[in-house]
Amino acid sequence: MTQSLAGKVALVTGAARGQGRSHALRLAQEGADLILVDRCAPYSTIGYSMPTPEDLNITVKEVESLGRRAVAGVSDVRDLQALGDIVQSGFDEFGRLDVVAANAGIFAFGVASSAEIGEERWNDVLSTNVTGVFNTLKVAVPLMRQAGNGGSIIITSSTAGMRGLLAMADYSASKHAVVGIMRTFANELAPENIRVNTIHPTGVSTEMIDNAAFGQWMAATPQISVNLAGNLLPVDKIEPGDLSEAVVWLASDAARFVTGAALPIDAGFTARA
Q1: Three-class SS of residue 74?
Q2: pLDDT tops 80 at residue 1
Q3: Is 140 within 8 Å of 11 (Cβ atoms)?
Q4: How many angstroms separate the CA atoms of 60 and 75, rounded?
Q5: Which of 171, 185, 214, 269 is catalytic?
Q6: Angle between helices 18-29 and 240-251 (to 10 degrees)
């Protein structure tokens, strides 16, 4: 099979597990070397476990088992200096940067209505999901320009970036916000052949929702459960690999004329009447 990304370098944030690990491995399968970043530390406001440095090491080893190289570092995407240092070290190692998968993000739950969201939770979600994406582009775009090869930036949004979801104004606001970031950068970077798009998954089978606390919240708030349910296609959730296929396509020349797009990969969730 021809590797569509042979010789290219991709940055993946939130790479220690879940969607990020899946994206890293598919990009590696297509021939890319990887720059991998993850926070690998808990949040007091988030009700599910966060990945660890060992999880990130596993991603590195799995990339290397595919015959590709990886530069990895632990950093919160909100820490511009630390994030920039890791990405710069990868650029220095590989000499280019072609693909950015701005995937790092968090999801908070547990209240019955958005008016109950606490200040700390609001700040954690918005700073990670919005400022973190901006920081990722802020450090990556100058290096993509320096390399001069064009490229592709893929930002992970959500169906919550297309619809308002109950009791999660923070998450919905953050996922709508990254669409604005995408559209602005798509306009700014098009002359340099750097494409920018968002992907919008329905529920994905990762630790973010596959945990006991989320299930308890759904059971305690049936009105929210109904709001979140109802993909048109007969699946409750999709797999991380379903998103990774879209990431690889958007990163490749097969999508060379796709930019400024908000791509739903949602089993019909946002089309539901």
Answers
A1: strand
A2: no
A3: yes
A4: 15
A5: 171
A6: 50
Q: Which two tokens stand for residue 87?
A: 């990405």
Taking only the tens place, the pLDDT of each residue in 83-120 is 999 999 999 999 999 999 999 999 999 999 999 999 99
Structural contact between residues 262 and 200, judged by C-beta atoms closer than 8 angstroms: yes
Strand order in the sheet with 151-156: 70-74, 33-38, 9-13, 99-102, 151-156, 194-201, 262-265
Run of H or E including 245: helix 240-251
183-208: b or e for each residue (b if 16 or more CB lie within 10 Å)?
bebbeebeeeebbbbbbbbbbbbbeb
- The dihedral through the CA atoms of 34, 39, 41, 45 has a sign that is negative
Q: Is 255 helix (H, G, I), strand (E, B) or coil?
A: helix
Q: What angle do CA 152, 15, 164 make, to 5 degrees?
A: 75
**CA-to-CA distance for 156 and 104, rounded, in angstroms?**
8
Work out whether the CA dihedral 25, 27, 28, 33 comes out positive or negative: negative
DSSP state of 152: E
43 part of the active site: no
Q: Which amino acid is at 265?
A: I
The rounded distance, in Å, linking the Cα atoms of 19 and 68 is 19
State the amino acid at position 170 in one-letter form.
D
Each residue of 203-253: pLDDT tens digit? Answer: 999 999 999 999 999 999 998 988 888 899 999 999 999 999 999 999 999
In sequence order, the 6+-apart residues with CB closer than 8 A to the CB of 146 are 91
What count of residues does the chain have?
273
